[in-house]
Amino acid sequence: MVQLLHPLFVLFLTLPVATGAKYTDKGIAIVGTTEPWSLHVEAGESCEDDISYDLASYIAVHFAGFDLPDGDSVVISSPDDDIAVSHTYTGRGRDQSGTFVASFVPGTSVTITYNSVGVPTSGQGYRVTGFSRGFPTVPHESVCGDGDQSSPVKCYAPGSTLARQMPQAYEKSQAIARLLINGTYLCTGWLAGSEGHMFTNQHCYENPEWAMNTDIEFAAESSTCREECKKGLGCPGQVVATTATYIYGSKEIDYSVLKLPNCVDLSSYGYLQLRESGPVLNETIYVPQHPSGFAKRIASKVDGGADATIHSVNEEGICGADQVGHYADTREGSSGSPILSPRDNLVVAIHHCGGCANAAIDVRTVLTDLKDKGIKIKDLVPSGSAGQGNQPPFARTSCTASRSAAPLGFASDLGPLNAVPATTPRAPISATVSSEASTTSSNSTSTSTNTSSSASEHATRTMLEHPTAANGLTAPVSTTTSRNSSNASTTSTTATTAHSASSTTSTTSSGPERATMTDDDGVGPDGDSTG
């Protein structure tokens, strides 16, 4: 098999690929890039297609024109039996939009399984336009001072030394989510209030449509305090939703509010609340986060072992006005993390800008803006005494689909939103392109064609058996596409057929979909760093 060796085309790169971590000019961690790949499947014949890429840590398939007949489905899964991850799409797919990025599957390969009930259709099916692949998971260190003083969240679990200092830090951190946005970007989000709202930075959602293509993963943490799990998307948790509604975002303040689907049960994770009076100068803080997409960590110490504190309030600088300064360690990917006080375990600021010191958004600014915009979030601030524990949102019943109108501040022509059921946990691994199809007819045929390609590929495709209107049986067929040079490729198709149904597979490769832009330090306004 000839392996696919694509060049890297990534937007806003600041580090070489060997680090496994890249960042936008605003500090969002980029953990992957998009590769062009083309496939068109017409509805009516079940089939399987495999995509693989050497050294990829995950693959997320890009769909367009996704429109399946009632009863049909597409399942994205791993061919590796040890990776128990799958995502199922029906109708018009994720959010019923027809064009979307599927939730990612860890590892070097994915299998796209189309299950058809065999009802003849006209004009339905789907196209694969490409796929996102994760960079190799090599950790990158970028710290200020004597090193990263954050610790795995398990170091704050009940019974630990740190838990005696901050008894609610571990419990509160359960409301923290790792966000994989549009298949390539990583940020940190957290549940705010009791109705399934999520806060993060606005610079994580410069395009509000990305909310519809967000994997929201809770409990992504190491199993012990000694397990650092410093790799992007490491130590898998639970992906409770693969879409969200964009409610509101302020570019000036740099915060966004999302709403998770109503069918998602969030009762295991609790929620955080904001302190109406805001931060206090020199008060002790802790910052639960997913720096660089690592397993969840908490920063509560600075160099020398001293407690992290609020360094300044009402500060003005390159990150904006009325900023809150702190030296708790963060990284790109920590964008959107809450800053809490162990005194009452309320959120006093939202981290959003890197440097030493780091800068955060004063929650008083956020609360004022929400009030001015008429946005109400139940239990966003305490109604009684503060620090009453980590009260969970009301439980949500599981469901398969939920539709809603276009949210506030969101393009109304995108169609209704469809909540996708929760998926199983996943863990990234480190990814040649494969594709399989079949057809039915009473004759055997063999064809050969030449096409161009930008990289070496290998594709196999196999049609699956399913009942037909004639006698409920079909014969399997296989199509193999081999691409062995950067200039040309040869496609050989062998089909064993019975009856009259047929299927056609088209696989092409085109130029890069992303440009490259570099930034020497990767840190600046709205960025993140370790301090």
- pLDDT < 50 runs, ≥5 residues: 1-20, 138-142, 386-390, 392-531
Summarize the main sheet. Answer: 9 strands, antiparallel
Question: What Rg, in angstroms, do the CA atoms define?
Answer: 24 Å
> What is the 3D form?
globular
Mean pLDDT: 73
> What is the count of β-strands?
30
Distance between the termini: 47 Å
Q: What's the total helix number?
A: 3
Strand content is: 25-35%
Structural class of the helices, strands and pairings? mainly beta
State the helical fraction: under 10%
Q: Any key phrases for this structure?
A:
globular; 3 helices; mainly beta; disordered N terminus; 4% helix; eight-stranded antiparallel sheet; nine-stranded antiparallel sheet; single chain; virulence; 531 residues
Any overview of this molecule?
The protein is mostly beta strands and 531 residues long. 4% of the residues lie in helices and 32% in strands. The protein is built from three helices and 30 strands. The protein has helices spanning 161-165, 169-173, 363-372, and strands spanning 22-23, 29-30, 32-42, 47-52, 58-67, 73-77, 86-89, 100-101, 105-106, 109-115, 125-134, 151-152, 176-181, 185-192, 197-200, 214-218, 238-241, 245-250, 255-259, 287-289, 297-299, 310-317, 320-326, 338-341, 346-353, 358-362, 444-451, 457-463, 478-483, 489-496. The strands form five sheets. Strands 1, 2, 13, 14, 15, 16, 17, 18 and 19 form a nine-stranded antiparallel beta sheet that branches. It has an eight-stranded antiparallel beta sheet with strand order 7-6-10-4-28-29-30-27, with no helix packed on it. Strands 3, 5, 8, 9 and 11 form a five-stranded antiparallel beta sheet that branches. It starts with 21 loop residues before the first strand and ends in a 35-residue tail after the last strand.
